């Protein structure tokens, strides 16, 4: 398999003294992202009465609103439009957008349908997929202790799968979509907030069309209850923050460390 470059543009050389702090910063970003993701199911459970697809659409729409507002305040629009000249970059961002949308849809549906065990299993399996992609795509090497830790985790996952008594389709789908999403994010060198602005812009029109259709049918939830409206908007911010942390971490540390 052809290896994917982790940077599309050359990066400035860093001194040895910069490596330690950079890695620590990357790990801090990753820990922050995973910590938030560990708590967000409690938030989404409060919106269980909202149709899963409609909820995902609102997540993407409000994520765009928040990131677009930030880019507008920073007056970065010209920089953003300049990225569209790089066709490889745009293809990767489009793929990342599709992967995250699929992952978000599976996650929301699984949580609100009561598949909490499989959902948890998916994010337990995810690090193994990250490590696998890191080795295969980015040519990362595992140290003996890392290999031992990964082997132990893999054994635990296999035991978990056998105890579950069936092929965990939901868990595997969550793990695979998010790991591949992480690989694409690692291969994209632009600032995380710019990447998220472009990713969410790809689904903006479909999101608006879908919500418009729901309103036309009179079945949309937005605008009927202030609490729901606020929570839907807040859901965009909650979606965006860990993704920005994760994308920032992916640029700094290896997929193995990210796992």
Account of the 3D structure:
This protein is mostly helical. The N terminus is likely disordered.
Number of DSSP helical runs: 11
Strand content of the residues, in percent? under 5%
What would you report as the Rg, rounded to the nearest angstrom?
A: 19 Å
Average pLDDT, rounded to a whole number, is 83
How many domain modules?
1
Could you say which overall geometry the principal axes of the C-alpha atoms support?
A: globular
Report, as a whole number of angstroms, the end-to-end distance.
21 Å
Question: Can you tag this structure with a few keywords?
Answer:
globular, disordered N terminus, 11 helices, 259 residues, mainly alpha
Write the layout of secondary structure elements.
Layout: H1 16-45, H2 52-74, H3 77-82, H4 87-112, H5 116-136, H6 144-164, H7 169-186, H8 192-202, H9 204-217, H10 226-252, H11 255-258
Helix pairs in contact: 1-10, 2-4, 2-8, 2-9, 2-10, 4-7, 4-8, 5-6, 5-7, 7-10
Sum this structure up briefly:
The protein is mostly helical.
